Amino acid sequence: MAPDQPNKHTLHGAARILVVDDEPRLASALSTLLRSCGYDVTEAHGGKQACELADTLRFDLALLDLRMPEVDGFAVMSHLNSRQPECAIIVISGESSFTAVSRALRRGALDYVRKPFDPEELIATVKGVIGKQSLLKAHEDIQVRLEKSEALHRYIVNSSPDIVFMLDAKGHFCFINSKVESLLGYKPAELCGKHFRNILDERDLARGVYALNAPDISADNPRTLEIRLKTRGSRRATRHFEITAFPISPQAWTHNGSTNGGGNGQNASYYGTARDVTERKEAEAFINFQAYHDLLTRLPNRALFKDRLELAITHARRGHQKLAVMFLDLDRFKIINDTLGHAMGDRLLQAVTQRLEGCLRKGDTLSRFGGDEFTLLLPSVHGHEDASQIARKLIKTLKAPFLLGEHEVYVGVSIGIAIYPEAGCSMDQLIQNADIAMYHVKARGKDSYRFYSESMSIDSTHRLLLERDLRIALEKKELRVFYQPQVCARTDQIVGLEALVRWQHPERGLLYPRDFLSLAEETKLIGLLSEQVLDQACRDVGQWIRAGHKDLRLAVNLSPIEVEHPRFVETLIERVNANRFPPANLEIEITENVIMNDLEQISQKLRELANIGVRIAIDDFGTGYSSLNYLHRLPIHTLKVDQSFVKAIRSGVDDACIVNAIVAMAHGLKLEIVAEGVETEKQLDYLRALGCHQVQGFFYGPAQPAAEISKLLTHPKTEMAATASS
Prior knowledge:
With 726 residues, the chain is of the alpha/beta class. Helix content is 45%, strand content 21%.
């Protein structure tokens, strides 16, 4: 079957089209497509050449890109409008911002096609515009001849792409062309004699009636307005029309004959046209939605949230009321996103949004602020308890697992809350302070909520300065590695060394992990910090191993963020191999909570490490889940008794019952046991009697730099005795 032939310009044969694009390959491909449909195509490689061609050649249609060097698409549109106003314009561009689209349409573009385009859709658009231009040109030609041919006048009215109508002095239809049937579903005859309000949407009824009664309306000053008209029945939705109407005098209109369409125009007092602009209005609405909403979750975006917050603050100020702003950050989302991929991450965000929306009151605004961050506006709250109730509800609704394909995942949420006017009187203050409060939740274990207080700002300023100094410290290698001996309880020999980081701050002196590790995790610097510590520890302990202490074990404590990272195993093996450290001499320490957060994934990682000889130790055992189930399922080698339990060893057996239980359990599972925080000889004797394998603590001295450890390893008995006696 032969392809549809394009519309032809009635006076000049095939329609002449100017294709403008600074990419010659794209311009050539588009030209070839159009020529295959019979159009006369001229190419312009850039805006400058297009303007030069427009000065010498006439075109029916121009297809142009917006982004071009030297002379862009908007400049070409202006040039064409001044030189060839009758030339139609279609924009074909990858630029999809609201500003660019709106600007192009205001400059006279009849359509906007996004790159990459569908060839069939593009051809249909070109045919439609060419056809429309042909009708408009025919319309203009016929207008000149209206005085000579009433028959021609009837043809153009009823062939018009718009509804053409006449009203009597009371607003009743006395003529309407047949276009009304295809656009609205009414037959012209059934509307004639009825008041025009019968087809007005109720929402625009007052505007429509007022428009024709305006005192300044005249033939020279017609009334133009956009209005909604009802379609017949429920087949189609209400449609948008641009109405242009003006009064006519009896002297100007004396026709009493028949016309095509409905009515004959007798007693006409008003003449008007109605152009269907539904598609344009829908496009504007979609562009507007894109500008103010997040397309993934369909929630208001940051811009719309700020607009609503600004308005809510104004109302609260006038009514002397309170409002709350919540800043929500999902816990563990990044790990899920990195592990399962961005597609699953997007599905998770949509599922989270649905649950959160189910907790809201009428009038609340939930927005996606960016990434896995959300903000929530609670207008008209009475105080902290109202906000607390909503926060607890939000946390509870995210407790249940999410099913993503075959994966069951858990996320929590950390919530910071700022109450107006206590936590700020401006939009920016409230958002910033809610954000600060949220970070304090993160620093204290996540999956909870906190209200902002002024002391948090002081802490935040201090943390900003500390973060700056920490970044400098990592660049200048100011971190130091100290080692705490792990001693055999039976022989007093050093069998292992736990690597502990210290920061030699240039102004504040030696800082301990409690002063900066939580900040390193929060600012995502923990990876680089751990890498430096592990490298140094591998070099130091590797040197002692090669010097004759071949069974010396290096114990390193790893952050949950590192262990949960998808490339944790690969990264650790890379660092160990880079420093030529024997894997069998390495023991990594992780907490129970890390394992239980994602038992399936962590189990796989631990097995991979155990397969190459790396030992696994559970740190702070007894303070977390303490589940016997995972102990026999996973390749665990060592349990470390938390120092809080060791401190309980005082006068009697009852004080140390937890230590007794842990040691007995370790013996039953054939695991090594290390007791932390041993400070007195009484504690040491008690642990020896229980059969505890190893101990570490201040009884044998604090953690020390590498130089002091070298002395201990060279003269262990002398140095250990001196340390213990001191």
